Structure formats: structure tokens, C-alpha cells
Amino acid sequence: MLSKEINLGYNDEGGYFHMKHNKPGKVYLVGAGPGDIGLFTLKGKECVERADVIIYDYLANAAILAFARPDTECIFVGKHGGSSIMPQEEINRLLTKKASEGKTIVRLKGGDPFIFGRGGEEAEHLAATGIHFEIIPGVTSAISVPAYAGIPLTHRKYSSTIGIVTGNEDAKKKKSAIAWDKIATGVDTIVILMGLRNLSSIVKNVTGNGRSPDTPAAVIQ
Fold this sequence. Notes:
Shape: elongated
Number of helices: 7
Low-confidence stretches: 1-7
Strand order of the largest sheet: 1-2-7-3-6-4-5
Number of domains: 2
CATH topology of the largest domain: Cobalt-precorrin-4 Transmethylase, domain 1
Order of helices and strands: HEEEHEEHEHEHEHEH
Distance between the termini: 32 Å
Number of strands: 9
Radius of gyration: 19 Å
Mean pLDDT: 89
Largest sheet: 7 strands, mixed
Structural class: alpha/beta
CATH architecture of the largest domain: 3-Layer(aba) Sandwich
């Protein structure tokens, strides 16, 4: 568990934070939600309002930046669909640099920072470098987008279990970490994020491991 490995604490305001830090600044890993600004959390808005620096991704609704102070530095790092204008290692260094200057940083990420958003990697980096940070959860598209489309992920008659799977694994992996032989029939509802590019192979993996080709499915973009 991440909370054990990097020594996370829990504060009275309901947020997780790293308990050991030796730098003056602080980083908030903030989930921007699925795109609809109405689903951005009040806690996230409060963080944006007091931020000195906002480092944001492609999938974070840029309208959220309107909540920031006029003097806030906003840095677009453009992570989208496996590509970015700034590699993850440079983003990590940028977080460390700005925090070491004593600044309050919001790392604004689409959806929830810990659902296929590399929030875990950034939290590990901040913990390793002694930067104080706090995690502000966001509304994940894995649940909210199907709901907007009128699709319940659970239903007493049809679905008692959910599986959330990435449709775009790290290209550096030598072998897929997805156990399709277990997932295909092991849960009632399968939600695949970022899967459009690999849709044909995903369908092949699911149906080839026992899922009926007649299973109702939806592609939402």
C-alpha cells in the first residue's frame, strides 16, 4: 500500500499528506474531475485559489484556472494519451524545484490523481525528496462518465462487481500486467479507460478469455 511505503498521515480536514518533510513548500495533488467544471471539488477549488504555481495536464479543464489568483504561475505540461510536452521525470523535478522555493503548488490532474494519472509516481517522488504534499481526490471518469451516459456500473439484478482497467499500458513493459483470463469473467462490469486506440485488441482479449461476444458494451468518447 502506498500509505505504508511513503508514510502518509491523515489530517482533520480529510486529506492524506506526507508526514516527514524538510522543504518549506507544499504540493497538492489535485484531481480535476472528468471535465465538467461543476464536478470539480470544493477542496480542489480552495487549493487552486491559494496556489502560487499550478502545473496542469491536458485533461484538466483549463476553466479551473479562473479560480487562481492573477499572479499565480500556470504551467501546462500537456500529458495526454501517452504523450506529453514534458516527460514525467521533468515534471517531478519541476515539482521539487518550485516547492524548494517555498511555494504552494497545485498539481492539477484529470479525473482522480490516483486512477491512471501517475499520481502515485509523483507522490513517491515527493516523499523521496522530502517535499510536503497532500492528496485531494477527484471525481474519476471511470464512474462519472458512464453515469452521465445513463449506464449504472452496478445494478442489483445485473452487476455486483466492477473492474477498472487501463486500455493504454506503459509501452516500456515487456509483458502486459493485465490478467485478462481473470478479468474477462471475474467481474460483472468492466470499465476500460483510455482504450479507444487499442479497442480491437481489448475486445479480442475479453472475448478470447471467456466473455460472451453478445455482452452489452458502450464506447464513450
